[in-house]
Specification:
mainly alpha; 511 residues; 22 helices; 83% helix
Amino acid sequence: MESQSNSWTSISLAAAVVSAGSLLSRIVGLLRDVMIASLLGAGPLADALIVAFRIPNLFRKLFAEGSLSSAVTATVTHVREVEGEARAASLIRTCLLWTVGIFSLLLVLAEYGSKILAAVLAPGLSMSPDVFDHANTLLTMTLPYLVCIGLVAFLSGVLHSRKHFYAPALAPLVLNCTLVLGASIAWICSLPVAETLCVSLVIGGVLQVLLQLMFLRGEVFWRGAWTLRDAHARSLGKTLVPTILSGAVFQLSVVLVTMLASFQAKGTIAKLYFADRLVQFPLGLIGVAIGVAVLPALSSLAVSNDRQKYGEVLASAVQFTLFLSLPAAVGLYVLAHPVLQFFFERGAFSALDAAAASAMLQAFSLGLPAFAITRPLLSGYYAKQNSRIPLLAGGCNLAVTVVSGALFMQMWGGAGLALAVSCGGWVNCILLYVLLRREGVCLAQPGRWNLVYALMSVFVGIACWWAVPFGIASLLCIPVVALGYVGCLYVGRSPDAQLLFSLVKKTGRKH
C-alpha cells in the first residue's frame, strides 16, 4: 500500500488536487488584482498598498507555500515512519506551541519596527514622505496576519504529512475570496480601498486557520501531554532558517527588486507586482503543486533508503514540470501585452501602464521554467532534510539578482529588474540540479522528451505570435493551442501527455 501511495500516478493525483485548489485561488486572486488596479491604478497609492502587502505575502510564500510547511511535512513523515504515530503526535503538539509563541513574538517586534520594515522594503519611498507614511500605516494594519499564516503553514504541513491536500489547497482561495469581498465593499460603500483590504487580509487569515482546524478536528494527535521540549522539534528548528531562505528565494528576489524599484519612477513597484502576479498563476498550478505533492512520497522513500525509486520519482516530477511550464512560459512571453490589457487595462490603470508592465511580464516569463523546476528539486533536498545545498544555491541566486538588477535597471528600468529575477532563478535551478546529481541521486540526464517539449513549445510560440495582431481577441487561441500541444504529444506517445489524460479521466469519474 505504501509503495502504491509513493507511485508517480498517485503523486500526480495529489498534485492535481493541489493544482485545482490553486487554480480556483489564482482566478479569484486575479479578480482581486484587477479590482485593485482599477481602483488604485499604478501610482503612489498602489505602491503604498503593495509595500504594505509585501511582508504578509513574503511570509505566506516563505511558510504556507514553502519552508515551514515543507519542513514540517518531511520531519513528521520521517518521525512517523521510524518511531510510530504516538511519537509523531507528540512532536506535532510541541511544534504547535512553538509556532504560536514565535509568530506572536515576531508580530510584536514587527509592530514596533514597522517604520524600519517599510524603509527596508522600499527605501526610495522615503523621498516621498506622504507615500512612505501611508505605506507604514497600512503595514501596521496587515502585520497581525503573520500569526495566522504561521499557524496555516504549520497545520498545512501536518495535513500534507498525512496525505490530506484539500484544506491546504483551498486555504489561499479563502483568503482571496475575503479580499475580493473587501474590495467590493470598499467600492460599493466608498470606503478607503487600501485600508479596507488590509483589514480583509487579517480576517481572511483567521478564516484560513479555522479551515485547517476543521479538517484536523477529529485527529488523535491533539490528545496527550503538551510540552515545549522535544528533540525532533529542536532539530527542526535548527534546520528551519536555512530552509526558509532556500525555499523562498524567488520571493526574496522579488523583495530585493522591489527595493531597487523604489528608486525608479513612481508606479514601477505596482507594475512589477501585477506582472509578478500573472507569473505566479502558472507557477502555482505547476511548480508549487508538484513540489507539494511529491514531498511526502520522497520523504518516505528517503527513510526506506530506496535510492533508485527516489531518483525515478524526482526525475518524473522534473520532466512533468517541464512538459507544462515550457509552453506556458513561451505563450506568456508572446501574449504578454494582450494578457495585461485583458486583466488590468481599465479604470486608473492606463494603456501606458499596461505596455510597461507587459515588458516586465515578458522578462519574468523567461524564468518561469526555472522557477517551476526549482520546486520539485527543493522537495528532493527537504525529503533528505538537507538545507545546506539549497541555502548555497539560494545565496548565489540572490547575489546574481541584486548585481544584475542594479545593472539592468539602468538600461531597461522595471523590465531589467524582472529579467534579473529570471537570471537568478536559472542560476538557482541549475545549481540545485547539478549538486543533487553529485550527491548520488539518480536523476536522469535531460532526455529526448524534454527536447521534444522544447521544440513543441517553439510551435506554441509561433501560433501565439500569429494571433497577437488580433489584440485581446488573441487570447482565444490559448485553449486551442494548449489542446493542440497536449494532443500532438499524446498521439506521439509522450508519457507525460498520457498521464495528463489519465488524470483528467480519473478526475472526471470522481465527479
